[in-house]
Amino acid sequence: MAYTDFTLSILQKKFKINNKFFPLFEKKDIQPIEVSAILQQQLNEAKELPIKSEKARSELIVMPILMELRRINNKFFTIYSGDTLIVDKAQGLTGECDFILAKETGSFSINVPIISVVEAKRQDMEMGINQCAAQLYGARLFNQQNNVPLEILYGCVTTADNWKFMQIKNNSIYIDQNTYYKSDVGLILGIFKYIIDYYKSILK
Length: 204
Known about the structure:
Largest sheet: 8 strands, mixed
Oligomer: single chain
Low-confidence stretches: none
């Protein structure tokens, strides 16, 4: 068993992790970010290409957005792409992660994961939500094992065009009622920045 094998029901039965459909962000708290010329050019060039695979969406759309986020946050975090997050193999809490955003410490290996970004395989958002929920639970345990317990961890599931945010807090996974779209990438960046600002306030 691995992260990709979990469902919300399995998480609830196995680890007592509930799930709720909930508005995660208030409009007054989110300020859209002006998209840089670099990112705008990358996204415009991506439109000219035949993006048929998850790999292409990852390289041409998702990664440029995450790199933009890293630039506007003065490299507060680092990006791990395709790394394996091993927490508890016996419990199935292991597997490759599409993207893990972790606090930048200069470490070659994952250290303090704060955001899990999952690409929805075959454009299936529900499957992506299941995987992201399992990774968030695994990341929370990982941080606890490394003596950096964080009350809240965030996740995001994306098809590259659609973006949905998630959160684990206490014994619940909260899934945002709203879906955000690549056509409003400035708003997506604003939500990510709101999340990063939270971690800047608690992680030294």
